[in-house]
Design brief:
With 92 residues, the chain is an alpha/beta fold. The chain contains 2 helices and 4 strands, in the order E-H-E-H-E-E. The protein starts with a strand and ends in a 6-residue tail after the last strand. It is found in: Golgi apparatus membrane.
């Protein structure tokens, strides 16, 4: 079965804008919620910001894929169900 909670924590300059375009098409075809953050310039979060973001992510109706330029969030550290993570990097 497919995961119902996915986080794509994007890395800059690795083609993530193109991937999000493809994800939009897939979300429509396979009927999952694609939620993209409008925050692009804050990748390192305080502990409080991390918890707030994780709580907000966990409230998204499933199945979902959440995407944002943000460092890894350790959901289990705060006893929040861990989603599946995906990412893309490139070799210079």
């Amino acid at each position: 079965s497919f995961p119902s909670q996915v986080v794509y924590n994007r890395v800059g300059k690795c083609g993530s804008r193109t991937v999000v375009i493809l994800l939009r098409l897939l979300a429509e075809k396979h009927q999952f919620n694609l939620v993209s953050s409008d925050i692009h310039n804050k990748t390192r979060l305080t502990k409080h910001e991390q918890v707030d973001l994780m709580k907000n992510i966990s409230k998204i109706p499933q199945p979902f894929l959440y995407t944002r330029h943000v460092h890894f969030l350790n959901f289990t550290r705060f006893r929040i169900e861990e989603p599946v993570y995906i990412n893309i990097i490139r070799d210079p």
